[in-house]
Amino acid sequence: MPQAPETTGYRPLFAVREFRAVFVAHAFSVLGLVVSEIALSVLVYDLTGSPLMSALTFALGFLPYLIGGTLLAGLVDRFPVRRVLVVCDLVCAGCVGVMVVPGAHIAVLLAMRCALAMVAPLFQGARTATLTDVLGDGELFVLGRSLLRIVAQGALLAGFGLGGVLLGVVPPRGALLITVCTFLASAALLRFGTRRRPARAHRGQALVRDSLRGTRRILADRRVRVLLLLFWVPPMFAVAPEALAAPYADGLGTGSAGLGLLMCALPVGAIAGELYAGSRLRPATRTRLALPLVCVTLLPYAGYALRPGLAGSLVLLLLAGAGSAYSLGLDQWFVAAVPAEVRGRAMTLNTAGLMTVQGVGMALSGTVAEFAGVRATVAGAGVLGTVCCLLLAVEARRTEGAEAPAPQGSATETRDGADHDVTGR
């Protein structure tokens, strides 16, 4: 029976062959997605000369997440997970390939952008669900999920830098062509680096009806519902400084260099927080700290009311980012609370909801800042967000012990030899 590693840290993950393939494929996929978004935004601006159309290219990435994550979520459990992952990567490569075609109309470019965003939650949900197949749903899953988040944050930072460098050397369509290769590399790694596993659910009802039925089932569980809200609510408020970074940097008089630092501070803090929690804290400690951390992670934003300079603002953002280490504890609770047969669509719904609420948070931040100003908006997001997190933490305490029991002989304890790979190093 597999046991969690005796020592904390991420090293045991790389003893699992399949995880190594998933890890590298994840890095390729995220990097390709970030660079494609930057290159497409520049391409649209070059074609139209319109800042609005360029910004719309980014904005179009939010609504399709909700559509794909609800109406199509059933795909993740109705087909073998490896097939879902590989097909999603190939679809992304095809969509970006269409963007590369010279003379492609602006409507086609935006349509392909929507298609990418619709596929993304399916891919991310399937990838998270397959971690439970590869690593089990105990400590290794929590660390694996954490490491993929760290890679995503790092790829986000590297992707913006790499995108800028690429666009200085090659035209936007050339940069897009490179991202086609990253998606194809991800598909190859997942196809040949992971095992084929059967679908989690049978194909009975029509896809949309089955997807909606699964969503209703997931949301009907009080414990799962509050955990989803704990995943969604803090990021909805946390995006306020990012959404308002440009006008805030302008108000500080720090120019583009200050803007870059403000944009990087939150993800750097998040990476540092997760690395420390994953490598230094034991599982019981991370679980015990999850709710206290979620209750204080937004508090640093209230410091914007004190009108800090650039250095003070960076410290506040780093602290807020580090607080996101609460996710490690939530991951363990969430995978324990969700029945195995709907795990894929639950992970997909989580991803879709997360992206959607972040888009809503950005829009609300910009709207409120028009009337209240940037500092007041960020400080208000910190206070209101903290109140919401406190209420959710209380509800989470009330639902403790309501996790779905793991099927005997599966789930946590018998995941495809993961323990053999770890303990037999």
UniProtKB/TrEMBL annotation:
Membrane topology: Multi-pass membrane protein
Pfam families according to UniProt: MFS_3
Location of the region described as Disordered in the Swiss-Prot/TrEMBL record: 402-425
Basic and acidic residues composition-biased segments: 413-425
Identification of the protein by name: MFS transporter
Keywords of this entry: Cell membrane, Membrane, Transmembrane, Transmembrane helix, Transport
Compartment(s) where it occurs, according to its Swiss-Prot or TrEMBL record: Cell membrane
Transmembrane feature ranges: 21-45, 51-72, 84-101, 107-126, 147-169, 175-193, 226-249, 255-277, 289-306, 374-394
Recorded superkingdom: Bacteria
Annotated source species: Streptomyces lutosisoli
Transmembrane helix as UniProt keyword: yes
InterPro entries on file: MFS_trans_sf, TM_effector
